[in-house]
Amino acid sequence: MEPKGPKPADALVKTPTSGVKMERPEILISLAQVSHDTWRAQAHRYKKIPLEQLQAEPFADDHKRAADTLRELEEKKPATRDEAVALVATSSHNMWVEFQVGLGKSKSELDLNPNDHDRERAEDIVKALEALRVLSFT
Fold first, then answer.
1. Residue 81 in contact with residue 137, Cβ under 8 Å?
2. Whether residue 8 has pLDDT greater than 60
3. What is the number of alpha carbons within 13 Å of residue 93 lying toward its C-beta?
4. How much of the chain is in helix, strand and coil states, percent to nearest 5?
């Protein structure tokens, strides 16, 4: 009997539309773009910043988030989609906390729990990984 949970991300995966193999670096670039696009949408929606004023290309932090996210999913192997989303939201939020601490804030000043923004980003990332057939839950 095959264990429950996501199938681990291999060095190569097939994309659902083309059957062409996508290499891990391409997966990470795709995830960084998804993460960044979610941030842009949130900045536009909540801070009313026009999209054309927001950088379209992912930041270095988006690439780090993508690599950390994929590694955590591979290591922790969440058994359900909900567990995967919770794991990604926590990972994303922890990166934000690290960033804020790097700017000189104290952890005691920060909310250490994932919020709706983190969960939205996590949903988008998990959806992208499912579309890329890197994750699947049955």
1. yes
2. no
3. 19
4. 60, 5, 35
